[in-house]
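tool=predict chain=A
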Amino acid sequence: MNTCGNRFWLAALLALLITGCGESGESNGSGDTDSSTGDSSGSAGGGGSAPIADPQVPPGVYFTADDGISGYELWRSDGTSAGTTQIIDLYTGSGDSTPQEFIDMGEELLFVARTATTGYEWFRTDGTEAGTELVIDLRPGSGSGVSFNEKTVAVVGDQVFFIGSETSSNDELWVTDGTAAGTRQVRDIDGSVMTSSDPYDFAVLNDKLLFTADDGTHGKELWISDGTESGTLMLVDIYDGGSISSRVYGLTTIGGLVYFGAQADGDDREPWLTDGTVAGTRVIADIGPADSDPIEWTAFDGRVFFSASDATAGSYDSELWATDGTSMGTVKVKELNATGQGKPLELTVFNGQLVFAANDDSGDRELWVSDGTTAGTERLVEIGTGIDGAPIDLTVVGQTLFMRATGNSVVGEQLWKTDGTAAGTVQVRQINPSTAASLWDLTAYDDLLLFRADDGSNGRELWVSDGTEAGTVLVKDIDTSGSGEPKNLFAVQPSPDG
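tool=predict ok
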C-alpha cells in the first residue's frame, strides 16, 4: 500500500494554502508568523508550512482472540467494549490464524499469522480489514516460512530481522521492510540448504544486530550483522576450540553495550559484555568456581544488576549481583536467602527503586526492593499469608506497578499493585470470587492496564484496570458461550500530541 504519493500531494497543497494565507498575514520579521495566527515557526519547506507528522497505525491494544465463530483472529481494543472489535478473519471459517509477534512500523503493524492456504508468514495491517494483507509467502503451501519467538525478531532501523526459510530444513537470518520486494535472506550462515544455523537471542546494538548462530564449524557463537551478506559474520569465537559452543545466551542491550552469559575454553559460563567489536568483547568477571549463569540484566543507578550464582558445582545459588563492567566492580549486592537460593527475577526499575521477586530465608517468594546497597535491599512486604505471594509479570503503568500475586490459598492468584511501599502494596480487586483469576498478558496501554482474566462467570476474557477496584472491569465478553482467550497483547500507544 503506497502512501508516499498521497503524502507528497498533501504536503504541496498545505504549503500552497499556507503561502496564500501569508499574503494577508503579518510577519514578525524573524521568519515566524505572527502569534495571533496560531502558526508556529515555518523553518521547514521554505513556505511557512509545518512538517506533516508521519501517519500512525490506530492506537490501541492488538491481540488474538476467539469469538467462538471465527477462531483465533486479529482484534484491537482501546479499553472500551465499543472499541473492542475483530479487524479481520484471516483464516476464514473457524480456523485459527493466531496473529502474534507484532511489530510497530509506524504506518502499519507487521505480524505473523497463517491462513487456510499458507503456513505462518508475515502479514501487515493499517488497522482496517481492507488494509490487512499478506506480505510474502516465503514457503508456498501449508509450510511456515517464518520461525518465531520473542528472541528471534528484532527491529533495526526500518528493517525487521527474523528467522526465515523457503524449505523445511534451512532456518536462517532474513530481513523484511514490510514489502515482498524488501524481504530477503541476509546470509546462509551454515552454507547448506539441508541444515540450519539456528540464529537466536537477537539484540540490537546501535545500527546492527547481535545474535547467536552455528556455522557448522565453530559451534554456537556470537555473530553480528548490518543486514548485508558481507556484513554478517562471527564476531568472536569465544570458545576457541573447533566446533565446541560457548553457550552464549541472554543477549541484553544496555546503553552502548550488550551483556550476556558465555563460556570460554577452560572457564565456566560467566558474565560477558561487548561493544560490537572483537577487542571490546570480554568476560566481566569470574564469579564462582562453577557456572554463574547470569540472567535478568537490568540497568539501575549507574550499574547493571543481574541474577547469578557463586556457588560450587551442584549447589547453584542465584542471588542479586551488580557490575560497573569491571571485575573489581562486580559484586554480590546481598545474600537474599542464607539457607538456599534467593533467585531474584522480574528485575524492574520503578519509582527510583529496583523491584523484584525473590525467596527469603524461609523460602517464601515475595516482593523485594533495592536501592543498590546491601542495607537498602529488603523484602518489601509479605503478600502471601501462609503461602508464597509469588509476584510475577511486574508491569509499570505510570506511578503504579501491577503484578499477578497470591494473597492466600483460598482465592489464589489475583491482580495486585504497589507504589513501592509496604502500605501501598495491595490487591486491586478479587476478580474471581472463588478461585484464581487466570491472569495473563499484563499490558500497559496509555494510563491503563489491559490483561486476560477469568471472573468465574464469563470465562477468560479481556479486562482493563485503572488501578482502582471500581475501575477494574471486564472490557468485553468476546465469546459469550465460552472463553475468548485474548492473548499476544501488543500496545500501540497514542501519540503524545493526541
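Residues 233 and 479 are 49 Å apart (CA to CA). The chain has a mean pLDDT of 88.
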